[in-house]
Amino acid sequence: MSPDTPGAPGPLVRPFGDTTGDGMVQVSFTLPLPHDKRAEGAALQLAAKMGMSPALLVHAKAMGPDFTFFVVYGSVTHLVDLREVHVAEREFPLLTPAEVNQAVRTHLGRKLVVVGACIGTDAHTVGIDAILNIKGFAGEKGLEYYRELTVVNLGAQVLVPDLVASAREVGADAVLVSQVVTQKDAHIHNTTTMSAAFREAFPAGEVPLLVVGGPRFEEGSAAALGVDRVFGRGTTPGEVASYLVHELVEPRTTPDPRGVQR
Amino acid sequence: MDLARAHTTVSVERATLRLAGLKGADHEGTPWVNHLVDAVRAQTGLEHGVTTPVWDALRRGQAPDLLTLAQKASSGGVSFRLPEGSDLRASRRAARVAVARGVRTMDRQRAARERMVATVGDAPRTPWVYLIVATGDIHEDIPQARAAAEAGADVIAVIRSTGQSLLDFVPEGATREGFAGTYATQENFRLMRAALDETSRRLGRYVRLTNYASGLCMPEIATLAGLERLDMMLNDSMYGILFRDINPVRTFVDQRFSRQVHARAGIIINTGEDNYLTTADAVEAAHTVTVSQLLNEYFAKEAGLEDWQLGLGHAFEIDPDLPDSFRTELAHALLARRLFPRAPLKWMPPTKHMTGDVFRGYLLDGFFNLAGAMTGQGILLVGMMTEAVVTPWLSDRDLALQNVRYVMEAAGGLTEDFHPPRDGFIQTRARQVLSEAVDLLEGIVHDSDAAGDPPLLAAIADGTFGAMKRPATAGKGLDGVVVKAGGYDNPATSLLEEGATR
Predict the structure, then answer these.
(1) Does residue B346 carry a catalytic annotation?
(2) Which residues have CB under 8 Å from A102's CB, separation 6+?
(3) How many distinct structural domains can be found in chain A?
(4) Which residue in B141, B236, B274, B365 is the catalytic one?
(5) Residue in B with minimal Cα distance to A144
(6) Which structural domain, as residue segments, surrounds residue A112?
(7) What is the pLDDT of residue A123?
(8) Same domain (yes/no): A52, A101
(9) What is the ipTM of this complex?
(10) Which of A98, B32, B204, B376 has the most C-beta neighbours closer than 10 Å?
(11) A129 and A24 assigned to the same domain
């Protein structure tokens, strides 16, 4: 099949309305303009710039005196080349809470202990609370909800030495740190300080799994930060729980020394 | 209740100072009320209340006024003592005079609200349409709130910055930086209320303003709401304990004070039963909502709130893939309506089963609105089809209001026609939920724990609610709880309980 046959099943695809190759899409948006002919023209111009040709303005409605809402249908001129689509694979399978609990019960034989905190001057517990609090995030319950996890949420503005001490006291398997504030790269600085402190305080091989999360961490920067995993914006509690199981619970080649201590 | 009466907290004491007119903060943003309460606590303790040592110090000429006293105390320049005899009586009297001024301000604000509703006009129908704004910047919130009111909202709620519930102080001044919400401050309250007053006059209906009296500063935020004429406050008896891990004793003490303030200020409280359904299955946990509503009603009445002030919560959170999910929602909603016939009831939209499919979400919100119309709910929190996707866009809000308007105009009168048949699906389901609720309440009454806590605390400690175990000796804010001594005095509590103005 020739690659320039749009709509044909193959590396090049177009959106599908009701006919192969029609390229139909729908978009809705708001322009900060009062509703009149000029606003409608502006909407069509935007549609054209988005690659919709021909574009059909099917709905325009004033929202107050200063804004207009539009719905536009049209055929996009763009082609999608499947050969250029790259998918970042998650390195661990996504588990349901029941599967997480089951895995911990079966393979670990005790509760998995998780300590969480916001460190430094960061008072934004939104991230750590979304992951830990039972209220959770994006319709998923937080780790406190998991029967086989023991969660210690230290809250905001926790000092690194206190975090290390708490982790040691409760025998943490994993330490979750949230960093929202990024002024002057505070999140990078705080994270490297934290990871260094843990590596210093625990013998090699017994350092808890260090996990850091926040909206501004770069994917793949875990090694540079000295932590085991970085989670970005939109991470759900289920993903974190699945990762913890993947790293800490699934059968290991060497027995976990922490497993026999308690 | 006995427990709530036997303790005070740093926040209750700070709220009392706020009623006496102490406001402002140092250059680092620490409020003067915090400085003064901390200084008194360090020297004399708080078990006799903060006011007696403070007004004793003022009487002894340690400072010319309350603000100067707080400023001096913050640098350790004031020595406090517990006065005795005639000094004690005079200090208490002086404190009462000062605090009574704040209480009268709340009374005046309540009267001002009643006057405005009478002259400007009230919301045209129930349910009141409740819309949320949250930009983080009060100066951005104001135009959004006005636009929402003009588009049909009867109630504007300004969501708080995430994490404020865990701050042990109330930030000061107009704030322009919040995280997923705007800080609750006295100045922000004032600015928003003034803007909505103007909008109310233009629209010919009083637009109500809502904020959140929860978290560690609940008593202070309730007080500021009363002083600045907010109209509704989120105020749940157990939310902070279960979902924010705030110490149970701290919560019950702070709760009681804040509810007394709300009662006096004519504020409608909104309770948080929706949270039980977002963390547990909405069918299985339906009876926990009923139990929580009953507890919230009890604690509210005890604090002096009247039926019209009880915005007891519930939510449309049943998995839409279940058979008869809408009928079950109707059964639950009607149960709440019948159990609390005079309370306005706050009906909250689906969040848990909003998947990002905004089209399906719009349909679900339509059914939510319909259930609200059919069962005569008092306050309808408008659902957004972009729930769990983005914070609502202008267009999301507009579409959501169209959805509400359509359903209310098309089917608002259905409450009149909707009488589920005897022993039909809806009645049977409602009866089942009610009987499960009664069983749970009986279980709570007989609950006990090793520490010998009262039954409700024991039940909270062993995870009866929301599947969370919250022992009475743990949780945030415990260090701010103080057992009252025999001579404890708090003029605010006295004035609120006596209904006195002087």
Answers:
(1) yes
(2) none
(3) 2
(4) B274
(5) B468
(6) 97-261
(7) 59
(8) no
(9) 0.82
(10) B32
(11) no
